[in-house]
Amino acid sequence: MKKIDIHTHIIPEHLPKWSEKFGYKGFVFLEHVKPCCANMMVDDKFFREIQDNCWDPQVRMNECDHHEVAVQVLSTIPVLFSYWAQPKDGLEVSQFLNDHIAGITQKYSNRFVGLGTVPMQSPDLAITELHRCVKQLGMAGVQIGSNVNQENLSESKFFPFFNEAEKLGACIFIHPWEMIGRQYMEKYWLPWLVGMPAETSRAICSMIFGGILERLPNLRVAFAHGGGSFPFTIGRIEHGFNERPDLVAIDNPVNPRNYLGKFWLDSLVHDAKALQFLFDLAGIKKVCLGTDYPFPLGETVPGKLIEEMNFDEETKNNLLWNNACEWLGRMV
User: Fold this and answer.
1) How many C-beta atoms surround the C-beta of residue 122 within 10 A?
2) If 290 and its partner were Cys, which of 7, 10, 214, 282 is the partner (CB 3.0–4.6 Å)?
3) What does the pLDDT look like over 195-204, one tens digit per residue?
4) Are 282 and 49 spatial neighbours (Cβ–Cβ below 8 Å)?
5) Residue 309 to residues 144, 296, 304, 329: CA-CA distances in angstroms?
6) Which of 65, 6, 58 is nearest to 36 (CA)?
7) DSSP alpha helix (H) spans, 184-250
8) How far apart are CA 223 and CA 226, in angstroms?
């Protein structure tokens, strides 16, 4: 069966030295230490080692062919969001990254679909770059973080951005980043194992309780990592909504359970029972293949979990292909 992977990350092989150009620290650059390998550095601090499948489209296509993935949806690595930067500098970073992704998607249009990144620290600039991504670069939409400098996505200043995305028909992929409480749980990789699922739930709850999904019913939003902890704590979330509406329902009086099936989730849960629960909860047409390629917490064999489930061919085809097209808003 054909497969679209909606959750993959890419980075240019060479990045400008933005810290030197802008005059302050915090930006990522790549230190190429050996063939086909580079260290991601934040100033002088090591962040992660990456391989050439993180930047070389030919390597990616070879690996996709091996795993029978026909199309990858490309988005930047969240550490590159740079929401903390000065807005004009954040815009320049976004434009550089978006031009890179657009160059790949235009050259290999049958293999890749692009999602842009935008400077969410300035909603006006984010809207400007969203327009450029969709209208000039041909992207399907954008990827944004689960928070913006620890401000929830429900903040009123972000609503015009979501409103514009709905008007443009742009899809949005929301990825956890800058996990709240991270500094208190660095050991055992807990920010990635515990913080990321909680951060994704934070984003979903913010979109629901802030009334964004209620006011923008045609906004196509997908959340990474199977929605994080949200699907498995919806009972608690709904109970809180019912028992303390004075705290929870202050901006949206609609039960959060009503929004199940109105947004998309990727399939990256690493567990058959968890994946079945997602299908039962959100609906079989709201889950898409997503692997977090090419990182170690991703699904090693793209689509394996779906293909091993006891579903008929039509259902598997929806999960591996058709649902992604619905979210992207285009046939691929």
Assistant:
1) 20
2) 7
3) 999 999 999 9
4) no
5) 31, 23, 9, 26
6) 58
7) 190, 196-209, 212-215, 234-243, 245-248
8) 7
Give pLDDT, residue 332.
85
Alpha-carbon distance of 28 to 122, in angstroms, equals 20
Q: Could you give the CA distance from residue 97 to residue 113 in angstroms, rounded to a whole number?
A: 14
Burial degree of 16 (CB within 10 A; 0-12, 13-18, 19+): middle
User: Cβ distance 128 to 88 under 8 Å?
Assistant: no
Is the CA virtual torsion 134, 136, 139, 140 positive or negative?
Answer: positive
Instruction: List pLDDT tens digits, range 154-193.
Output: 999 999 999 999 999 999 999 999 998 999 999 999 999 9
- The structural domains of the chain, ordered by start, are 4-10+53-328 (3.20.20.140)
Angle at 64 between CA 62 and CA 66, to 5 degrees: 70
pLDDT at 331: 86
Mean of pLDDT values over 94-103: 98
The pLDDT mean for the chain works out to 96
195-233 CB burial, b ≥16 within 10 A, e <16: bbbbbbbbbbbbbbbbbbbbebeebbbbbbbbbbbbbbb
Are the C-beta atoms of 232 and 277 separated by less than 8 Å? yes
Distance between CA atoms of residues 237 and 150, nearest Å: 21
User: In angstroms, what CA-CA distances link 314 with 17, 52, 237, 256?
Assistant: 48, 35, 33, 30
pLDDT at 152: 98
If DSSP codes are grouped into helix, strand and coil, which group holds residue 254?
A: coil
**CA proximity to 227, closest of 255, 208, 253, 249:** 208
- Residue 74's nearest CA partner among 130, 167, 12, 149 is 12
94: tokens are 């976004």
Residue 44 has pLDDT above 90, yes or no: no
Q: 3-state DSSP helix/strand/coil percent for the chain, to nearest 5?
A: 45, 20, 35
**Res 33 pLDDT > 90:** no
- Tell me the C-alpha to C-alpha distance, in Å, between residue 27 and each of 75, 96, 130, 174: 18, 13, 22, 21
Element at 51 (helix H, strand E): strand 45-51
